[in-house]
User: Fold this.
Amino acid sequence: MIIGKPLFTTQNIQNRVIELAKEISTDYEGKEILAVCILKGAFMFFSDIVKLIQVPMNIDFLVASSYIKTETTGEVKIHADIREDIRGKHVIIFEDIVDTGLTLKYIKDLILSKNPASLKVCAFLDKKTHRHADLEPDYVGYKIPDEYVVGYGLDYDNKYRNLPYIAVFKKESS
Ligand code: IMP
Assistant:
């Protein structure tokens, strides 16, 4: 198993997170947000971006899974749900990566059923090639090609989440 060269370096990531935080701070000026981190993958992105968003916020976490190693199971499991009251809140979901969109679609529908004032999605990476769900994130860090990536929170078999950069992961040398 091989970890390729960084696709996005620590410096690239920091710069893009600053830009996204500015955009969100401008869009939500005068409002309070409920920032929801989708675990485990978004933990690094979330902790970086919430420090830079300049509007008042509450924070919550939702633990979901749908992948085994590099393959989607097509079935989303919620292991721990949001505990904050969602009704009437301006909710932003922070996700590590959108691939088929099935995970996010499931989570969006779950949150929408609890009547938020508004709901937007901020995904650090957007891999459009396999998109099944009719869903576009409102804020995107980077669009990426059809490669399996690890680092900056993203895993293969729950490993490599701690890499401070994002790299392409290959199962065998080619
Ligand atoms: P989707 O439901 O197919 O959009 O997949 C979304 C979830 O799959 C993400 O939250 C990740 O946990 C995982 N995932 C999808 N692509 C990758 C990848 O390239 N690397 C690591 N995890 C991924």
